């Protein structure tokens, strides 16, 4: 028996050491990640970099990387995802993120959208390796965000940044490609450029960036909306390659450069700008309304090649505009005319047809309304029903049929002194105002007479009753 135990003892010891050796072997990187990912072990701290073997086994964990959607709430979640997946096929959403920095670390490609919202603690977004966002790069309600540092980001499908009130620095690759839409609203950015390889956008909307002083991009076509408004009053807008757009609305700028613009499919509006000049010499057609309104410094314009405005033509309250004569080749207006301001003259030598009505009102007595008035036996270019022209206190009205026949006309205001002066002297202006005022008072007296007579009739009726 003693010999038997002696014989079995080495075998037992060897077996025991063999088991200890197997249990003591270091697990593979895949096993370690399996433990972390399945909840069998503790989550990696975000500030602890794992062994390099973790990085060498990403390919074996492709199921996680192929998920349609990842929700990140803390930096540890993002770090763990980055270690496992350099390329992510789905989207990433950050919501109520509590850390101050979003660092994409080893992540290079995001196939879906990148959504970061409602995270008031975030101060900076960075990623030294991130090259692609296949969907929308969406940021909203990041009230503490100061900087975006993604210097290698070369491809984005769309940018939509809203309510980032202290964002002052956004650094992307200077030659970003793939963009179909850009919306930047409510930021503290001073310049927007770096989109020099973007040729076509559906939407280009830059608004409410109170310190924004310069926009420069080489976009050639905007297929839906181009809107620039409510930025710094000193904003310089430079779109040197833009050739066509569906709708354009530009407000609150100090200079506008659209030297190659040829076509606007719908409306074109310039409102409350501080520009002194507006040159669109290559523009030929406007598919909707052309509106130029409340541009207080605007005095020099060139729309010399525009032949058709298929909507209305609105030119109103441009204080320094003395003449409306910048549409020398305009042949047709598809809607109504609305002119109002201090202008002294209008000149449309090629205009043959206005399909809507016309309202023309100037505070200047120099304006000659006879340019727009058609003789009773003539054929009017206005076909929309009514022409009303007001020059100083003189008013002329014509009702016109759709085929251009003048149905009737009327004139208000006095012209009895017009033979003695040309309307330019102070006495001439004063006499016109006085005459018009007298006419107004006469009308008021008649109203009073009728009113008193009606009151007396009512009184007698009550007395009889």
From TrEMBL:
It is found in: Cell membrane. InterPro entries: CWI-Assembly_Regulator (IPR051648), Rcpt_L-dom_sf (IPR036941). One of its GO terms (cellular component) is side of membrane. Gene3D superfamilies: Receptor L-domain. It is a lipid-anchor; GPI-anchor. Residues 1-18 form the signal peptide. Residues 400-426 are annotated as: Disordered. Keywords: Cell membrane, Glycoprotein, GPI-anchor, Lipoprotein, Membrane, Signal. GO terms for biological process: ascospore wall assembly. Belongs to the SPS2 family. PANTHER family: SPORULATION-SPECIFIC PROTEIN 2-RELATED, SPORULATION-SPECIFIC PROTEIN-RELATED. This is Sporulation-specific protein 22. It comes from Zygosaccharomyces rouxii. The lineage of its organism: Eukaryota, Fungi, Dikarya, Ascomycota, Saccharomycotina.
């Amino acid at each position: 028996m003693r010999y038997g135990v002696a014989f079995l003892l080495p075998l037992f010891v060897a077996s025991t050491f063999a088991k200890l050796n197997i249990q003591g072997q270091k697990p593979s990187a895949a096993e370690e990640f399996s433990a972390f990912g399945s909840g069998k072990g503790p989550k990696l701290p975000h500030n602890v970099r794992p062994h390099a073997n973790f990085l060498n086994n990403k390919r074996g964990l492709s199921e996680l990387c192929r998920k349609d959607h990842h929700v990140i709430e803390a930096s540890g979640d993002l770090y763990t995802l980055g270690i496992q997946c350099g390329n992510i096929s789905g989207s990433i959403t950050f919501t109520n993120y509590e850390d101050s920095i979003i660092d994409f670390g080893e992540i290079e490609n995001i196939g879906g959208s990148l959504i970061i919202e409602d995270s008031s603690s975030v101060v900076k977004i960075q990623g030294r390796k991130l090259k692609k966002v296949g969907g929308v790069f969406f940021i909203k309600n990041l009230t503490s965000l100061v900087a975006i540092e993604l210097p290698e980001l070369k491809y984005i499908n769309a940018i939509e940044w809203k309510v980032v009130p202290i964002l002052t620095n956004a650094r992307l690759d200077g030659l970003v490609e793939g963009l179909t839409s850009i919306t930047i609203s409510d930021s503290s950015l001073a310049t927007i450029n770096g989109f020099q390889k973007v040729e076509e956008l559906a939407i280009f909307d830059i608004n409410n960036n109170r310190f924004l002083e310069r926009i420069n991009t080489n976009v050639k076509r905007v297929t839906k909306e181009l809107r620039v408004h409510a930025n710094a009053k000193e904003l310089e807008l430079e779109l040197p390659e833009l050739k066509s757009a569906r709708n354009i609305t530009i407000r609150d700028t100090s200079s506008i450069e659209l030297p190659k613009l040829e076509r606007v499919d719908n409306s074109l509006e310039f409102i409350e700008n501080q520009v002194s000049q507006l040159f669109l010499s290559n523009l030929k057609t406007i598919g909707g309304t052309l509106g130029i309104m409340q541009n207080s410094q605007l005095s020099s314009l060139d729309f010399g090649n525009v032949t058709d405005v298929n909507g209305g033509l609105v030119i109103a309250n441009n204080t320094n505009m003395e003449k409306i004569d910048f549409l020398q080749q305009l042949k047709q207006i598809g809607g109504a005319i609305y002119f109002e301001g201090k202008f002294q003259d209008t000149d449309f030598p090629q205009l043959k047809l206005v399909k809507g009505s016309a309202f023309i009102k100037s505070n200047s007595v120099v304006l000659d309304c006879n340019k727009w008035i058609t003789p009773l036996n003539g054929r009017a270019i206005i076909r929309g029903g009514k022409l009303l022209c007001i020059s100083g206190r003189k008013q002329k009205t014509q009702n016109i049929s759709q085929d251009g026949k003048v149905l009737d006309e009327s004139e208000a205001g006095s012209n009895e002194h017009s033979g003695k002066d040309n309307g330019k002297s102070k006495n001439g202006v004063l006499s016109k105002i006085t005459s018009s005022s007298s006419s107004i008072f006469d009308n008021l007296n008649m109203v009073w007479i009728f009113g008193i007579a009606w009151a007396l009739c009512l009184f007698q009726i009550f007395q009889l009753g």
